[in-house]
Amino acid sequence: MSGRVPASCPPNFSGRYTVRSGDTMFLIAQRFGVSLDALIAANSHISNPARIFPDDVLCVPGPVTPPPRVPVSCPPGFQGRYTVQSGDTMFLVAQRFGVSLDALIAANPHISNPNTIFPGDVLCVPAVVPSAIPCCVLLRPQLGIISDALGTAMIRLLATNQRSVSVLATGIPLPSQLGAFNAYQVVVAFPPPEATQFTFFITPAATVPGQPATWAGTLAFVPGQGFTPDTLIVVRPINTATGVTGNAVLVGTLSACF
């Protein structure tokens, strides 16, 4: 059976494609980044889109690019407007301008889905919210039986333009006293829509006999990481062999740094 070839292709099509063994209309649409409906509509010479054969020739329509979305106005004190380039995401734009992802999304209500932006979209870039860095925040105990437990998290700016979080905890019990655990883990959790978290371990420092144990550790973040007042810091026990974690022992936020 010879391949079916279109007499002509619609305007603005991106090219012709010769079907190979194993192809389906759905797979070809995915390969070229077009909708299945658009591919079917561009190939009226294929009477049954569910049945295509090797050597059939298909017209591949050009991808549909939505018109650029432009804000009517920007909030007071904004840095400026930015035109989205290929490969951009809201997160990358926020990092580039040193603002939080939440602030960038809030400043652009004309972008209905922040997870999907297109080249040509125009974004309002909000002003950078000053933070009191370096700063320290308290991490308060979460288990009623640990009356003497307390911690602190110090956030500072390094010479490499990275921010670091250093946690010091004292008066907390050995992890093994809380269950089948052998270490303490710190979780730095960023709120939605970023909803990411980073972890590191704190280790026991040398202590004077009879004095509360002290645990400490530090993690440096990539430049531009979007710290916010709601960024959560949690200290919890963990079994490093199984990855199982226990209830939070100390908890705090970065609200005091803003």
Q: What this model shows, in words?
A:
With 258 residues, this protein is mainly β. It folds into three domains: 13-61, Roll (Membrane-bound Lytic Murein Transglycosylase D, Chain A); 80-125, Membrane-bound Lytic Murein Transglycosylase D, Chain A; 135-257, Sandwich (Immunoglobulin-like). It is 11% helix and 29% strand. It is built from four helices and twelve strands, in the order E-H-H-E-E-H-H-E-E-E-E-E-E-E-E-E. The chain has helices at residues 25-32, 36-41, 90-97, 101-106, and strands at 13-18, 57-61, 80-83, 122-125, 135-141, 150-157, 163-170, 183-189, 197-204, 214-220, 232-238, 250-253. The chain has an eight-stranded antiparallel beta barrel with strand order 5-6-7-10-9-8-11-12. Strands 1-2 form a two-stranded antiparallel sheet. Strands 3-4 form a two-stranded antiparallel ribbon. A hairpin with an 8-residue loop joins strand 5 and strand 6 (150-157).
Approximately what portion of the residues adopt beta-strand conformation?
Answer: 25-35%
Q: From the 3D coordinates, which CATH architecture of the largest domain would you assign?
A: Sandwich
Helical residue percent band: 10-25%
How would you write the strand order of the largest sheet? 5-6-7-10-9-8-11-12
Label the structural class: mainly beta
CATH topology descriptor of the largest domain: Immunoglobulin-like
- CATH class placement of the largest domain: Mainly Beta
Radius of gyration: 27 Å
Largest sheet: 8 strands, antiparallel, barrel
Question: Got a strand count?
Answer: 12
Order of helices and strands: EHHEEHHEEEEEEEEE
Count of helical regions: 4
**Low-confidence residue ranges:** none
What would the principal axes of the Cα set say about the shape? elongated
Number of domains: 3
